[in-house]
C-alpha cells in the first residue's frame, strides 16, 4: 500500500494538465465578472463557494442589476444536475472515507477530478489522499485564476486568439478517450453529442447540458442491456 503523501502526489500529477487548462478560462471568467461590476472579492467568493465553471459562466451571462435570482438559481441548478450523477457514481468508491471526508470531497468535486478518480478506481482503491491531490489545489487554482482575472484578466484579450477557449474541450476529449470501451462508449458519446447539439441550436443554453446528459445516460443504459442480453444468449 502506498503512503498518503505518494497518493497525494500522484493525484496532483494527474490533475496538473487540467489545472493548466483552467488558468486562461479562470482569467477570462474573472474579466467577464469585472465587466459586470463584480469586485475581485466577490469573484473570489463565488469561485470558492460555487466552484462550478459552467454554472458560473452561465450566471455571469445573465447577470444584471437587480440580479434575476430565480433565473440564476434555475440555470445553475440545471447545469449542475450532472453532479448528482457524478456523486452517485463515485460514492461506492468512497467506502474508505469518513462521512466528513466524503462531504468535503463532493464539495470540491469537479468534472476533471471526478473523471481522474473514476479512472483511478478502475486500477486500485480510491483513497482520501489521492482525491485530495486532485481536488484541493485544483479548487485553489480556480479561485486564484478567477480572482486574478477580475484584477486584470481583461489584459489577456480574446482567448480565442491563443486557442485558450479550446483548452477544456481538448481536455475532455482526452478524458473520454481514457474511458473508451469500444462500441458502447461510441454510442453513448454520439447520442450525448447529437442531443446536446440539437437542443443548443433549437433551445439554446443551458438546456443542452441536461439534454446531452439524459441522452448519454439513456444510451449507456440501452447498450448495457443489449450487452447483457448478448452475454445471456
From TrEMBL:
InterPro entries xrefs: Brnchd-chn_aa_trnsp_permease
Localisation per UniProt entry: Cell membrane
Keywords, comma-separated and alphabetical: Cell membrane, Membrane, Transmembrane, Transmembrane helix, Transport
Transmembrane segments: 15-34, 41-59, 65-85, 126-142, 162-180, 185-201
Keyword Transmembrane helix on entry: yes
Principal localisation: membrane
Claim: Zinc-finger is one of the keywords in the record: no
A biological process from GO: L-valine transmembrane transport
One cellular-component annotation, GO: plasma membrane
Pfam families, alphabetized: AzlC
Membrane topology: Multi-pass membrane protein
UniProt record similarity statement: Belongs to the AzlC family.
Name of the molecule in the record: Branched-chain amino acid ABC transporter permease
Organism expressing this protein natively: Alsobacter soli
